[in-house]
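User: For my dataset I need records formatted as: sequence, then structure tokens, nothing else. Please produce one.
Assistant:
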Amino acid sequence: MTGHDGEHTDGISVVLAEDQTMVVEAFAELLGLQPDITVQAIATNGAEALDAVAEHDPDVLVADIEMPRGTGLDVAAELRRRGSRTRVLIVTTFARSGYLRRALNAGVTGYVLKDSPITELADALRTVHAGGTVIAPELALAAWDQADQLTDRERELVRLVGEGATNRTIAQQLHLAEGTVRNYLSTAMTKLDARNRTDAARIARERGWI
């Protein structure tokens, strides 16, 4: 994690979390040009993001979704659990309604796409900091069209399938009977209209449900 000026100012203090170094450094440089925004730290994975928020207590965490050691949604949910005052703004390439639903459930108050101009990102930061909510307009209408039908347990199993785990491995990891795992996955495949367990993981990921 690369540290920046950690002093609190009268403006908006920010931690950036993004696993692509060039992207996050560009964000940091461009946001640093805004007179009211101070980038305190850069994190390249979910664990670093949590550490940086704990250390710097920023007003806003700007995070990608897909990161190692914890997604942006995982980080948002954990910050909510901890009662952190830091508000979370997701900046991602994934225009998937399922991701937006999960983000809102995790307490995220901003969700914008990476191809937005930096001025829009800065404005979104200001809105989130002021207590408002910012949702990319192309996502707002689509968000409720396709409801996530999976239960938390089904979602967990399908995610593990997507990571290459066998039914036996999943059963051992989650302390379930192998038949129970098959039943959960069978129900998930039916809900997703999937041909097999691998197809179920693909469909769920495409919809942003896992």
